[in-house]
Amino acid sequence: MNIFDRMMSFDRRWVFLFLALVCVITYVAKFSVPIVTTYEVESIYNRVESLNEGDILFLGIDYDPNALAELHPMAYAIAEHAFRKKLKVLFVTLSQNGPGMADQAIRDLTDSLRQDRTYNGVFYPGREIVNGEDYVFLGYKPYPGLVILGMGQNFRIPFPTDYYGTPLDSIPMMKGVLNYDQVKCVIDLAAGNVADMWIVYGAGRYNVPLALGMTGVMGADYYPFLNSGQVFGLMGGLLGAAQYEQLADNPGPAKDGMRIQLYAHITIILFILMGNIGFLVTRRKNGV
Amino acid sequence: MEAMSWGTFLWTTFGAFLTLCIFSFLYKDNAFYKFAEHLVVGVSAGYFVIILWHNGLQPNLFDRLNDGSWYLLWLNSSKPWYMIPAILGFMMWTRFSRKWSWISRWPIALYMGIATGVAVPLEMKNRVNVQLYSAMRDIEWGNFFGTGLLDGGSGLSQLIIFVGTISALFYFFFSKEHTGVFKGVARFGIWILMIGFGASFGYTVMGRISLFVQRIQYIGDWTKVAWDSNSSGGFTLFWFITFGIFAVLAVYEIVKFVSKRGTEASG
After folding, report:
1. What integer is the mean pLDDT of B40-53?
2. Nearest to residue B19, comparing CAs of B238, B220, B226, B227?
3. How does the average pLDDT of chain B come out, rounded?
4. In chain A, positions 48-87, which contact chain B (CB-CB < 8 Å)?
């Protein structure tokens, strides 16, 4: 049995073990890799950056914990960017296991925003963000398509109360906020077909400016909507989150994870090359 | 490092334990994986029921009918029309009876009708018409190379999209034999499709690795807390117990696996 035959009978579990070792070693060894930002992420950052104090940003936390790894860094980076700019943020989740996770993220952000920070050379003093004044978390409702359509008429139709049970009419931030007309843009972080529903029912029906943050698996499928102008920006997977962190000068878990990602990809590419070389050589040897 | 309470550390340790349980499937199916898998399914289902009650039924139905009387089926409330969706919803539950399940067809038919009526024009407009328009835009010859290869608005990108769309559609045109020029265009179309599949595969690999990266970060943070916290003695002990279980099992399985391979090779 020569080396190429061995390649073909290589147990996949050694590949998993080797890949895990590469990931752990690159996690332990602290170094950074350059992040190149792309147009589709820059346009989301620039849109948030261009908003004025008091403008309302709608942030959809439309994912379950199984997509937390890729989408949570986006949510943290965007929300922190918005709060530092004193925008008001309207959180909604249309994913069934999302509410607790979104609530936890808001609590974490509340703690983080108490600290003084300097981002891109601009000093932002720490401040207290207040529920009902700086943000509202509407919570979860089933049937995302109908909820998106309902919110286009009046947020109070699908959400008579916020997640904590307070009627929307008694929330200061919601005074005069009826529907998407009062929202400057929607950034939907989605791990499923909720993204399609936002394109069709949100942007398509109510012309609300829409950007999408999505899992890596979904990334390539949504570029046609960027080309057609139906969405103004896209963030795909951990790379998209890392790019936003880079633009916001707020390094977080996504940027930290990119060095692991880089070496994991190199390892996978090497294994793919080895597998293909082994396959081609053994096929030639066997006269196929 | 911020001090962590014992309660939080135990939950975090349980999270790390479950992570290792799930990853143990990469070696082979086992009791640890089964336990974690069943726990996820059970917790998700239970969580969804509670969330649905507190975020759906309670505020959107019962709170809107709460000024009425239950023994009058809330028909004396100020918003009695909310009983209509409630009754339709109740009719869905007849699915559990063979004798009465036909009743559930009425709400399903109503829901299907509304959903189709809402979806068809919007889907047609946003998924077909707008996409067709964007594929038929004038090619900007004056801005052919744009700001670089990644510029989606450049004339080159528009040309690639136009040619790619046409040739990919040629490949799916089966009522004519793929010969001559037609075959060449269809062949180019399949290359375009392969590039698309390749991009999707690349993104998928990135996505899957991202999940692993986050878990490594989680276990790394948990390890840091165990070693650096004020209560490091007890925390470290828990770290050793959790990691030790899997380390011992891993070493045992690797030795078994290698010796089995050695026996097979010599035999």
Report:
1. 92
2. B220
3. 88
4. 66, 68-70
**Binning pLDDT at 50, 70 and 90, where does residue B140 land?**
confident
Q: What pLDDT was estimated at residue B161?
A: 87
- Provide the whole-model pTM: 0.89
Measured in angstroms, the CA of A200 and the nearest CA of chain B are apart by 6
Q: Is A230 on the interface with B (CB under 8 A)?
A: yes
On the question of pLDDT at B249 being above 90, the answer is no
Instruction: Retrieve residue B52's tokens.
Output: 């649905």
A167 touches chain B (CB under 8 A): no
ipTM of the complex: 0.89
Q: Distance between CA B215 and CA A163 in Å, rounded?
A: 29
**Residues forming a β-bridge with A210:** A186
Catalogue all structural domains in chain A, each as residue range(s) with its CATH number: 53-115+124-248 (3.40.50)
Which sequence spans correspond to the domains of chain B? 84-136, 139-230
Task: For A222-239, write each residue's pLDDT tens digit.
Answer: 988 998 899 999 999 999
Residue B231: per-residue pLDDT: 67
